[in-house]
Amino acid sequence: EEKDKVKLSYEDIMSQRTERRGIHVDQSDLLCKKGCGYYGNAAWQGLCSKCWREEYQRVRQKQIQDDWALAEKLQREEEAAYASSHGVQTQSTTPPQPGHASLGPFSKFEEKKTNEKTRKVTTVKKFFSPSSRTASKKETQEGKTSPSISRHASFDTDQVSKDFVDFLKNLQKPGREIHKQCRVFLVNMSSKKDLGADELSECVQDFYQNLADRLMTHFKGSSESVEQVMDQVEKYIMTRLYKSVFCPETTDDERKDLATQNRIRALHWVTIQMLCVSMDEEIPEVSENVVKAITDIIEMDSKRVPRDKLACITHCSKHIFSAIRITKNEPASADDFLPALIYIVLKANPPRLQSNIQYITRFCNPSRLMTGEDGYYFTNLCCAAAFIEKLDAQSLNLSPEEFERYMSGQASPRCSSAEGEWPHTGPGAGVAATNPVLAQLNHNLEQLSTISSRQEKVMEAAQSLQADLLSWTESVQREVNDILEKYPLTCTVSAIDANNIDNDNLPPPLTPQVFAG
């Protein structure tokens, strides 16, 4: 119930913030809801990793204690019922053996109770005792030949292992001990594939915590040195565990991924102005930063190590801040960043977004998520994903009718303002400017429509000219026929060409004369 209250409180705060000004989250909303000062996480109901683990273990321990109390209560009731109905008969028909103590009528229940407690203790140790983090010698020997550890490793995995060994050589003896602990942990994890994602996360986080405590003692409180070693340990461990712990079958991460992708596809019509994003993509430098931000957020899925996935989120966020700074000619604020991040996520539709968020949440070094710029950017990404899931008409400053028309595909926002102007986005604004890609598509469609209209007019004119030519030919032919009928032509033979002409009347032909030079 307490966890539900925390979850409701976190969602209510997010809803209230979005009602103020489309999209708005205060810095305090990103921090842990227990006031420890670290960054919270939507996947942890607004708590940081430290408080979430404490809350998780407290709830687990309470559940186990309640189960024990219920089991003991049921057992006492069963024993009492058995004693009242069969106690006398059992004592009379089963006398005690000479030389042996009487076991009494409750021996089978004592054995059952012992077995029940043994199972309960095993369950408790499975989650809360060091036995879940330390493998026995037998398990270690068997695990050394495990195919998932020693064979069929990819080139990337082999390269990471080589780099890890080279890094530990500089630490000499502590390096050998760290490598041994990591190998033992991997062998131990290979026998826990049937555990749920939360239990696997607990095992990894416990290993991080125990190893960090030892390193802190060795380096005498040098947090920077410990951080460097833990980064290498995380890279080595999670590269080998990636296939078995990323989007496991025991979770609904895949279903959430599909739901998020479908949701983002359905919101393809959302424009940069609807989100009140302070970025002008008509500026080449801004457009370049937007493309880089989209590339970084998509590239996150190709990384195996949680720290590398976080680095992609950080690079994406820095490109967003650069785009906002260039547009406004001043440093970007937190109120500018979150809407821009939401816009980038909607444009990119990153693959397996929920699985990547959950993977980072479960297996990243907790210190990176609790403080620093990585933790800040990751918390904002979680807020962006949560906002997209609950995005409605009020969030976009639209009327419910407009929102439903856009969602159903009955209408699409169009650019209604002059080039370079920011269109009106207040309530009742029915038309909004599109992003550059959609704007270019609309421009091309308008040109095609204009060309089609002009072609239709040309065809109509050509057909009219053809009809006029045919009509003119027919009219000319009719006029010629009328003239011929009115003035018929008569042909007469010339006398000079007749055969019976009297040649005697003709003058003599000319005779040539010769003149002496």
The number of helices is 19
Radius of gyration: 44 Å
Low-confidence stretches: 1-11, 13-21, 96-110, 119-153, 415-434
Main β-sheet, in a few words? none
What is the residue-averaged pLDDT? 76
Class by helix and strand content?
Answer: mainly alpha
The proportion of residues in beta strands is under 5%
Shape: elongated
- The beta-strand count equals 0
What share of the residues lie within helices? 55-70%
Output the helix-strand order. HHHHHHHHHHHHHHHHHHH
Distance between the termini: 148 Å
Task: Describe it.
Keywords: Metal-binding, Zinc, Zinc-finger. Residues 108-119 have a biased composition (Basic and acidic residues). Residues 80-153 are annotated as: Disordered. Residues 254-397 form the VPS9 domain. Residues 26-60 form the A20-type domain. Helix 8 runs parallel beside helix 10 (223-245). The chain is 66% helix and 0% strand. It has 19 helices and no strands. Residues 1-11, 13-21, 96-110, 119-153 and 415-434 have low confidence and may be disordered. The chain has 517 residues and is mainly α. It is elongated and about 170 Å long.
